Amino acid sequence: MPHHLATATRHINVNSTHQPVKFCNNVISTCKYSVFSFLPRFLIEQFLRYNNIFFLCIAALQQIPDVSPTGRYTTLFPFCIILLISALKEIFEDLKRRTSDKKVNNFPTQILDKGEWKDALWKDVKVGEILWVENDHLFPADLLLISSSEQQGMAYIETSNLDGETNLKIKQSLPTTSHLTSLDSIGPFTAYIECEHPNRHVNEFSGNLHIEGQEPKHFGIDQLLLRGARLKNTEWICGVVIYTGHDAKILLNSKVAPLKQSNVDIMTNRRILFLFFVLVSLAIVSAIGAELYNRSYIPEAWYISWILADGAGFLWNVLTFFILYNNLIPISLQVTLELVRFFQASFINNDLGMYHADSDSCAVARTSNLNEELGQVKFVMSDKTGTLTQNIMKWKRCSVGGVSYGDSESDQFADMRLVDDYKKTPDSAHGNAIRELLTMMAACHTIVPEHKEGELLYQGSSPDEGALVRGAAAMGVVFHTRQPQRVVLNMLGKDESIEVLDVIDFTSDRKRMSVVVRSEDGKIKLYTKGADTVIFDRVGEASKATMNTLKEHLEEYASFGYRTLCFAMKEIPQDRYAKWSADFKQATLKIDERQKAIDACAEEIESDLDLVGATAIEDKLQEFVPETIQALMAADIRVWMLTGDKRETAINIAHSCALCTHHTELMIVDKHTYDETYDKLMRFADRAKQYEVEGREFAMVIDGKSLVHALTGEARVHFGELAMRCKSVVCCRMSPMQKAEVVEMVRGLADHVVLAVGDGANDVAMIQAAHVGVGISGEEGLQAASASDYAIAQFHFLRRLLLLHGAWNFDRSVKVILYSFYKNITLYIIELWFAIFSAWSGQTIFERWTIGMFNIMFTALPPIALGLFDRPVDEAQMLRFPALYCSFQKRAFSLAQFCMWIGMAILHSLMLFFLTYAILEEGVVWAHGRDGGWLMLGNCCYSFVVATVCLKALLECDSWTWPVIVSCLGSIGAWLVVLIAYSWVFPLGRFTIGADMAGMAWIMMTSLAGFWLPLIFVPLTTLLWDLVIKSFFTITHPTPREMAVLYQKRHATGGFERLTRYGTIYSSGVLDLFRGRTRISTDDEFPPGSEPIPIEALTRGRRSSSSMQLAEEARHGFAFSQEEHGPISQHDMVRNADSTQPKPSGR
Question: Which residue, 147, 446, 917, 1147, could crosslink 1133 as a Cys pair with Cβ 3.0–4.6 Å?
């Protein structure tokens, strides 16, 4: 017994309600908060934002008596409202996560209760219970397989949801429990299990089963059914619950839902930090001004000399001015962003362009805090199975006797010429080759047929084999019976029995599978299928003539990304077979070097073969995957594929989904020691620099074992350098945690936003590790979607999510932030100019409550309208020109943009104050002999500021829509209405506020020259600067939006479409278009100098010989997804399966 079992084990009573200890329940939660953790986690997240910390300090300082010139509650009250709105938004979004968790927890299952099968929910499953799981259902917990409907307690398991493997795995129950196939035998069954404590090792498991009166039986990973895996091609299984809920292995590979902060928030924090130091500097300068004024002028004014005796000191003045200028940092920024993000998320949720009718699923923004992150993505880390592919294999093409059959447009192979050509000349060499190909497709495999309700079904661990068997059946060669020693085929209406003599298993080293059969005419034949590289090496001279034609067909099939297999055969004389069979049986019985002896025997018989043909199978991609990946790469986004599948399969899919082309240099890292991995990475990093200079395409392929070393020590540096240079990377044979480690590594290499997209439980860790996690709510349950930030139904919706919503949201959110800074600085920096004329006394130019209402009432709507309704470029243009996405990133929140906005705010504040001061310098005297006082100056200036900043929003808006116009003009009108109402508040009832404002509306609005004419003149004069600057930059340095609009006017047609079938490669970008470079398009819409150029002109030289062989093999030679080293070998599967025997019902 392993040492760890003796020291730390879990003890479980089978089929019992009494357990030695209390185990974890089966309820899972991906929620961000709980009832108890909400307040601390929410406050931590909120105070990661510097502006919230700042306003908390301001609110506290305002409570000090006589220090605040703006009152005690003018900051605290709006600050509490802001936190409340943010809290409600977080609660609402977390409730959506809880709803998704509830859906998973309430999946149905069946539990053995008091000798009967009873319906139950996943959340009610307990450790020790016996569950009944039917075909195509997910396992609700980690189970120990007891028995199944199949012979010898076998079960086929699909684990693509867990490890990305496309082939089915075979699990087998212990012989001591495999007979428990009826309710009478399962009901009274009791036992005692001793096993490991929960851990995250999905490929390791060990324990013992104790049955009374029997010796303990050891079990391992071959008997463990993991939560989230799916039962396939097996009518039912019974299993004992081992681990539940968050103790399940796949859940242990997940992480606690992290607190993610957007890159925009981080940059905003930096800008706020800068403004904070500006604020402190202004407070110090103002305090110095106050000190100089007090010492220079106060002593001469004997009537106020008491100010020097009782006045505040320097630090007190600093504090006063610090509070006076505090609104330079906009208090409404956070709540405005929260509201904008919330409604931006609702736009995503309700976008019909991301609605999937087949599954009745729409996009779901499970968090809104990361909307703008979607517009800054630099790396997309994608799962393969279920994300890029549908995991549906279909036979598409074949080549026999130099003739290619089938086409790439049909959903599956339907070329009846194949059968017709056989029927015309069945005895010819070509006709015989067709017959042998169809026979091998129908007989050389481990598939088991099942007759169910009049329908013929096929069960097997390899989806490729299943596709070929179904394809042969569609052509009239139907495999319908398997017995231990023979298979029966219906050959075009006539049953033929084929005796299976020997099976030589497929392995990754052999890259082929062979069977020796005896046909009805007594001939012994060897049927072999496998990679073209191994088949071509073993064919005889007679087949050399057809080999070149077959290679051409394989190249054609590979251009579509199909998984190809070559077929060969030969007749074996009886005497030679007798000798070889004896040697083969001896090899299978060896103890030492058994596999080596078997391989030697196989090499002896698998030689001088006759090449029959080849088949092409499509691992069906999800809709528009190549188009989406091309668009993302055209937007300068690096796309990585992270999968648990084998290398050859991963590379095939990489080609078919346009992640790389057949002219891409594949740099394959497949070493198993640290030194070898380090050396190879170092060489590839140097080679990548050379390729960049030469303008050649290159991509990296690395497997899980090499990745362990690549992420360690000095190798990590070279791996990171190489990864940053590659446009695409394929990582295969990866565990869930390795996926997360790669994502974290890329995050740490540079300041780039990383997005992870996946559909299975094995993708949760990387989804949570990425800046932005996107879950595909597809066939593999809802765990990835539940743990994600955004959920979509299909991978191709990612294009719309990023290039449209992401770019729009990023541009809009940045405008909201910059505009919020601008409007606050424009208003509140006027306090500094007024301080010069108010003896640096700290007196406000504006009435205190109008200061507070500026952000929450009079300028609240324009930034929200900008954030929701502004369209920098229309939808069609954004999707047509992916390079716009990258261009927006470069200009949206740059330091130059920030400085421009701040500079314009200071300029506007100077003009607004001094123009107002100049207009009212002489004062306005009414008929009763009174003037307007300081509030006339303050309120007029305030009115001009409101009008200016609202009109500024219209200038900055790229598309004027009625909500934008109404919000801007309505805000100006709202101030005028409030001004009238506020000036009438003080004399009415018991109101004690607004005494200074009493009658101000009448005073202001009865002055044509002092208010109404300046209300038009001052804002227009102030904004004239913006018109001049915008015109200058539009002419000299047009933005991508302006260039796209200009191009749209000149060219009404065109679009971005997939063009790989024409053998042409295009770069993309509206910027490139106007600079005479290559771009993506489909129509004759290129100005001179920007026409697309053929890929041959871009690809200089040939691949290096070091990686060419591996790349060629992976590209079109090996696509046979058969499980290796499982509990039952392929030989045993063939020898023990019997489709004529009835299956137990288990009931």
Answer: 446
Confidence at residue 993, expressed as pLDDT on a 0 to 100 scale:
65
> Would strands 191-196 and 206-210 be described as parallel, antiparallel, or unpaired?
antiparallel
What does the pLDDT read at residue 556?
85
Q: Which one of the listed residues 101, 383, 464, 636 is annotated catalytic?
A: 383
Cα separations in angstroms, 85 against 49, 494, 627, 790, 861:
15, 75, 40, 22, 16
Assess contact for 786 and 30: CB atoms under 8 A: yes
Q: Is 506 annotated as a binding residue?
A: yes
44, amino acid identity: I
Active site residue 310: no
Q: Examine the pLDDT at 1041 and tell me if it is beyond 80.
A: no
R_g over Cα of the chain: 37
Alpha helix locations (H) across 731-870?
Answer: 736-749, 764-769, 783-787, 797-800, 807-828, 830-837, 848-853, 861-869
Q: Which residue has the higher pLDDT, 279 or 907?
A: 907
Q: What mean pLDDT do residues 89-102 have?
A: 83
| Residue 343 is assigned to a ligand binding site | no
Chain position carrying tokens 């509201």: 339
Percent of the chain with pLDDT over 70: 84
Give the residue ranges of DSSP H helices in 695-782: 704-710, 715-725, 736-749, 764-769
The pLDDT score that the predictor gives to residue 241 is: 94
Report the distance separating Cα 584 and Cα 578, nearest Å.
10
Mean pLDDT of 1017-1036: 88
Residue 496: Cβ-neighbour burial (10 angstroms; 0-12, 13-18, 19+): middle
- Is 383 annotated as a binding-site member? yes
Q: Which of 357, 894, 418 is nearest to 615 (CA)?
A: 418
The three-point CA angle 1005-1010-1013 to 5° equals 85
What is the SS3 assignment for 910? helix
Do residues 427 and 664 make contact, with C-beta atoms less than 8 angstroms apart?
A: no
Please check if 789 is assigned to a binding site: no
Residues 494, 582: contact at Cβ < 8 Å?
no
Neighbours of 1037 (CB within 10 A): 9
Per-residue pLDDT reduced to its tens digit, 16-35: 878 888 899 999 887 888 88
Q: Flag whether 759 is marked binding.
A: yes
Strand, helix or coil for residue 398: strand
Q: What are phi and psi of 492, to 5 degrees?
A: 55, 45
Nearest to 551 by CA among 473, 613, 479: 613
Q: Show the tokens assigned to 777.
A: 């709510």
Average pLDDT, the chain: 81
Identity of the amino acid at 752: H
8 Å CB contact between 501 and 524: yes
Mean pLDDT to the nearest integer, 210-232 = 88
- State the pairing for strand pair 236-243/142-148: antiparallel
The DSSP output letter for 242 is: E
Q: What is the mean pLDDT of residues 1005-1032?
A: 88
Asked if residue 139 belongs to a known ligand binding site, the reply is no
Tokens of 251: 């859940």
Pairing of strands 772-776, 790-792: parallel
Nearest-angstrom CA–CA distance, 205 and 185: 27
Residue 415 marked ligand-binding = no
pLDDT band with cut points at 50, 70 and 90 for residue 1082 = very low
Residue range 306-354, pLDDT digits in tens: 555 555 577 877 888 887 787 788 877 878 888 898 899 999 999 999 9
> Is the pTM for the entire model greater than 0.85?
no
If residue 159 lies in a helix (H) or strand (E), which one and from where to where?
Answer: none
645 labelled ligand-binding: yes
Rounded (5°) CA angle 34-35-37: 60
Residue 459 C-beta-side C-alpha neighbours within 13 Å: 29
CB contact set of 815 (below 8 Å; sequence gap of 6+): 863, 866, 867, 870, 956
Helix-, strand-, coil-residue percentages of the chain, each rounded to 5: 50, 20, 35
